[in-house]
């Protein structure tokens, strides 16, 4: 699958909308705690990427152990869940409003979805 110019432009547009929703959820209600969602969604792919690189350092030897890859997936899933649950927790404890929490969750999901889509479109294919 090759990524064309239209794909790059559309994914950038969706990413901009995600960041706009998160920033508006902070600015409209004058509570800047929903910005934590951006950090969790930006950091979410890192454990999966790092553990994927550490699991099989040699391309010629196939290892049967996938514990490192599973740990990376667990950490990524935890960060994604934290990105959704943290605004809900803050809204439930009335630190932020529910509208800000919903905007933050929606923006965060758009941000992470765009990061995953960029990874899928620009993934290098193996020659084997």
TrEMBL record:
Spans through the membrane: 6-25, 71-91, 98-122
Query: Can you tell me which family this protein belongs to?
Result: Belongs to the OB-RGRP/VPS55 family.
User: What topology in the membrane does the UniProt record assign?
Assistant: Multi-pass membrane protein
Query: Which InterPro entries is this protein grouped with?
Result: Vps55/LEPROT
The keyword Transmembrane helix is annotated on this UniProt entry: yes
Instruction: Please report the organism this UniProt entry assigns to the protein.
Output: Hyaloscypha hepaticicola
GO terms under biological process: late endosome to vacuole transport via multivesicular body sorting pathway
GO CC term, one of those recorded: Vps55/Vps68 complex
Q: What name is this protein filed under? A: Vacuolar protein sorting 55
Say if the entry is tagged with keyword Acetylation.
Answer: no
Q: Where does it reside?
A: Membrane
Output the superkingdom of the source species: Eukaryota
Q: Which UniProt keywords apply?
A: Membrane, Transmembrane, Transmembrane helix
Q: Lineage from the top down?
A: Eukaryota, Fungi, Dikarya, Ascomycota, Pezizomycotina
What Pfam families does this protein's entry cite? Vps55
């Amino acid at each position: 699958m090759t990524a064309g110019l239209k794909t790059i432009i559309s994914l950038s547009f969706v990413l901009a909308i995600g960041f706009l929703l998160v920033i508006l959820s902070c600015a409209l209600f004058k509570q800047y705690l929903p910005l934590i969602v951006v950090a969790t969604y930006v950091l979410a792919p890192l454990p999966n990427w790092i553990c994927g690189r550490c699991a099989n350092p040699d391309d010629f030897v196939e290892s049967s152990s996938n514990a490192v890859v599973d740990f990376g997936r667990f950490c990524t899933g935890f960060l994604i869940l934290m990105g959704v649950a943290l605004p809900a927790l803050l809204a439930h404890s009335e630190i932020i409003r529910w509208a800000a929490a919903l905007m933050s969750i929606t923006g965060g999901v758009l941000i992470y979805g765009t990061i995953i889509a960029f990874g899928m479109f620009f993934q290098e294919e193996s020659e084997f």
